[in-house]
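User: Run a structure prediction on this.
Assistant: Running it now.
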Amino acid sequence: MNQKGLLTAWNDTKGFGFITPEGGGERVFAHISTYAGRGRPVSDRKVAYTIAKDSQGRPRAGRFQYAGAAKVGASIARGVWVAAAVVLVFFTILAGLFHRGNLPVSILAAYGGVSLVLFVMYWIDKRAAQRGGQRTAENTLHFFELCCGWPGALMAQQVFRHKTRKGSYQVVFWLAVLANLGALGWLLVAPEAATLRQQLDFDLLNSLRLPDPIFTVFGKPG
């Protein structure tokens, strides 16, 4: 970050803008994929950046982030807190079911393990986007999201500001979340999944059944 300037003409919808060098000169193109700070960039803020070149040899910002007072004032994006709250509530529910014996440890471990793997995959893909390297296929990310990794993906999207602005990606992501939760709900309570629950040695459905009030009062017939 050896250059300083002012971020101008930032279009947050399209995810790009221009940096006017501190000492004057031609403006430098800056894209959201190379932003290294917290939250979202805002126009008329002082930034520090590196110089790179695009495929046509034109100068562009390699990486950029807030500098000076702007950096101190930058806060964690609200989306990070929302994502953290959603993930915390979800894992609290899973932990509660496991504690009551209504969820096998394998499912809890699957969500935790795959989420961690996918979080790292997002980080790698973000760095690849910044450096112009080989990217991870979106279908691969969606596959892991469907296979219990969506909590990690949700956190990674907000922490790394990655894939959050691409509408088509977000549609598929949330469809994967709904499909995964639907499959989990089916496994937990559907009568058709009773055999599978027995194989996994748990049965939430039986624990939710209320005792017969006659038996509760008089006891079971002997």
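The mean pLDDT is 84.
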